[in-house]
Every structure is written in structure tokens, then in C-alpha cells.
């Protein structure tokens, strides 16, 4: 603990609130602006950051508790502004949604759990999760699928990134019954948003030193909709001659991910395909419990699990894996320029997993959520 205290004190002078923007360079199309610095008017201590927290449904609250415990042990200078938005717990309303938006306008950064969407139609097609992402214009979802050291899966040493446009496509909430027994569900693809996500993908590849971007589509069948998306990707690719560009049909992409995922680097795709591929790729490295994710707009950054599952059957059983949420939280800290604390916690998580003695059931172990969280806290001092 003494050594850790010295390191924290040494780092303290370097951790003043600075302008945000680890991914600022990725958000530079003409209509976009740089991500402003997170405000901290409501922070309890000078130099700390306010972050909006949405625990969500299922095991979300339990995972957020693990994050708060680890942050407390690591003395992370973050203050959470916690809100509850849930359609299944009758805690969803326009008023609560506006409260979350107001909080985000101040913090610019959020850590969220899965807000579960019921399948029953109750007069509103757009879920609160969808409406939140639209109001914040969280157009780019990024899931970094990377193997964890010491945890063996079918494919090891994987390192690929899935970038998904998540404000249009099949998830446009535009459905109607044209005649009795016939439902029309509209898929919206626009040039502006296709160009924006393509540019984001190529900027990301450039910023992160990656060599290839693959556009995933179904333009052989949806010739106009996916055809426009594909054309926009090709046009943007011409502006980045140093980045290799190729295309792949979505069904073949799923097969190739299972057979030979090493051929991929950065993949960019419309909404529904991204949702499916996120989950498929997460399964390659251990499942929903180990893959972090994040979503970006011109102003806001939201950090979440890469494969969004409420895992409702595990609620209250103390068996959920905190890894994905903890790694998402460390990505958030890096976004806030809190590099020391980000590395401290991510190193501790990876050290526990590599050790192999404390693993939750989804990773083949017998540890509880609490056991894993305490092991991570213990590894902070090592």
C-alpha cells in the first residue's frame, strides 16, 4: 500500500483536469466538433471529474458496484452522478430521460449498463436506450475485441475492432402495418451518416496505427441501401491511401470470423450487422463478460459493455463477471486523461485473469463477483 501511495502522490501533479480527447482526432468531419472537456462543477473535490452513471437492468447495478469499489480502492478522482432508467422496472419516463441528458450535458462522459428493451409493443417503437443514443447522437459504437493474456479460447492473440453506425439502419423504429397481416419495417441508410461512420473508421485506423479497414455489407441483395453505404466507404477510402481497404458480405464475414478472424483489423458496418458481429466476436475471446465497448458523438463519450446483455438470470446470485465493465471503466479513465489510474486498474484486472486462480463461472472458474472484485483490489497493490 505504501508503494502504491507514493506512486499515486507522484502522479497526482500530472492528473490535473485537461482537455479531453483521446479519440478527439477521430471526430473531425465538417459537421463535427471536438469533444469538450468534462465539466466538474458538482465534483466533491477539486481536480475530480463528474461522470454520468446509468446502472441499467439485469446485473448492471452489481457490476457498477464493483466499479465503484475498485475506483474507491484506487483513489480515482471521479464522482458519479447516478441515474436510473429502466423500462422493465417502471423507472423510465421522458422526465428521467431528460435528467440523464442534462447530466450528460455537464459531464460529457457516461458509464452505462444495459438498458433492457421489452419485446412487448406498448405504443412506442423506439426504446429508451435507442432514444438516449439518438438524443446524444452517439453514432459510432466501437468494440475492441482482444484476447486476454492467460485466458485460453478457441482463437488466441486476437486483436480486431468493430465499428458500428448506430443511429439509423434497421434500428430506425419505423414500422407499420400496411394492410392487415403485413408489416413493413423500414431500413434507413443516408449518405451523410454513411460517410461519417466511414471517416470515423479510417480516422480510428490512422490514429491507432492499424493497417486495414473492411466494410461489411449486403449490397448484393439490398442494392440501394447497402449499396449507398458501400459506395460511401469506397469514396472515403480513397482519401486514406495508406490504409488498405476491402469489402465483405455480412454472411461470409460471420463465417470468416469463426474460421480465420486474424485476417481482420478494423471492420465498419451498418447498425444491425454491427450488433450481430459484436456478439459473435465477443464469443471468440470469452463472451459478453470480458469485452468492453464505447460509443461516441461529436460531444459525448459513453462507455459500456461491448456485447450488451442484461444477464437477468444472474441477478442477485453474485456470479456476473465484472471484467468487461471494469475494462470499459478503464477506457473511460483513459478518455479523461487519467492514464495512471486507467493503467493501474486494467493491469490489475489482467493480472487476476492471467493468474487463473480467481475466475467467474463464465470463464470456467468458481469465483463470485465479489471474489473477483476483491482480487482486483488486491492486485492494485502488487
TrEMBL record:
It is found in: Mitochondrion. GO terms for molecular function: magnesium ion binding; NAD binding; oxidoreductase activity, acting on the CH-OH group of donors, NAD or NADP as acceptor. Keywords: Mitochondrion, Transit peptide, Tricarboxylic acid cycle. The keyword Protein transport does not apply. One of its GO terms (biological process) is isocitrate metabolic process. Heterooligomer of subunits alpha (IDH3A), beta (IDH3B), and gamma (IDH3G) in the apparent ratio of 2:1:1. The heterodimer containing one IDH3A and one IDH3B subunit and the heterodimer containing one IDH3A and one IDH3G subunit assemble into a heterotetramer (which contains two subunits of IDH3A, one of IDH3B and one of IDH3G) and further into the heterooctamer. This is Isocitrate dehydrogenase [NAD] subunit, mitochondrial. It comes from Melopsittacus undulatus.
Amino acid at each position: 500500500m505504501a508503494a502504491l501511495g507514493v506512486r499515486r502522490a507522484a502522479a497526482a501533479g500530472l492528473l490535473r483536469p485537461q482537455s479531453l480527447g483521446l479519440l478527439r482526432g477521430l471526430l473531425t468531419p465538417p459537421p463535427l466538433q471536438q469533444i469538450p472537456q468534462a465539466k466538474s462543477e458538482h465534483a466533491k473535490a477539486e481536480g475530480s471529474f463528474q461522470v454520468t452513471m446509468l446502472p441499467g437492468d439485469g446485473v448492471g447495478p452489481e457490476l457498477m458496484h464493483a466499479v465503484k469499489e475498485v475506483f474507491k480502492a484506487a483513489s480515482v478522482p471521479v464522482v458519479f452522478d447516478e441515474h436510473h432508467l429502466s423500462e422493465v422496472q417502471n423507472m423510465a419516463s421522458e422526465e428521467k430521460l431528460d435528467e440523464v441528458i442534462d447530466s450528460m450535458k455537464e459531464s460529457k462522459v457516461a458509464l452505462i449498463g444495459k438498458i433492457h428493451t421489452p419485446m412487448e409493443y406498448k405504443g412506442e417503437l423506439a426504446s429508451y436506450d435507442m432514444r438516449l443514443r439518438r438524443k446524444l447522437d452517439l453514432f459510432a459504437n466501437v468494440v475492441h475485441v482482444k484476447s486476454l493474456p492467460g485466458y485460453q479460447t478457441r482463437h488466441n492473440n486476437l486483436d480486431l475492432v468493430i465499428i458500428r453506425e448506430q443511429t439509423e439502419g434497421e434500428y430506425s423504429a419505423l414500422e407499420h402495418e400496411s394492410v392487415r397481416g403485413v408489416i413493413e419495417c423500414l431500413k434507413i441508410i443516408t449518405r451523410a451518416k454513411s460517410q461519417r461512420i466511414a471517416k470515423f473508421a479510417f480516422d480510428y485506423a490512422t490514429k491507432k496505427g492499424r493497417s486495414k479497414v473492411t466494410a461489411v455489407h449486403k449490397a448484393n441483395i439490398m442494392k440501394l441501401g447497402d449499396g449507398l453505404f458501400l459506395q460511401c466507404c469506397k469514396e472515403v477510402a480513397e482519401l486514406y491511401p495508406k490504409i488498405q481497404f476491402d469489402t465483405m458480405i455480412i454472411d461470409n464475414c460471420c463465417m470468416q470470423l469463426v474460421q480465420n478472424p486474424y485476417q481482420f483489423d478494423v471492420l465498419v458496418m451498418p447498425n444491425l450487422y454491427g450488433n450481430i458481429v459484436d456478439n459473435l466476436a465477443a464469443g471468440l475471446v470469452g463472451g459478453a463478460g470480458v469485452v468492453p465497448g464505447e460509443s461516441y458523438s461529436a460531444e459525448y463519450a459513453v462507455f459500456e459493455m461491448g456485447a450488451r446483455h442484461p444477464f437477468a438470470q444472474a441477478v442477485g446470485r453474485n456470479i456476473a463477471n465484472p471484467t468487461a465493465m471494469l475494462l470499459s471503466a478503464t477506457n473511460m479513465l483513459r478518455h479523461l486523461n487519467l492514464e495512471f489510474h486507467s493503467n493501474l486498474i486494467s493491469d490489475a484486472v489482467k493480472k487476476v485473469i492471467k493468474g487463473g486462480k480467481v475466475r467467474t463461472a463464465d470463464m470456467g472458474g468458481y469465483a463470485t463477483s465479489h471474489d473477483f472484485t476483491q482480487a482486483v483490489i488486491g492486485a492494485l497493490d502488487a
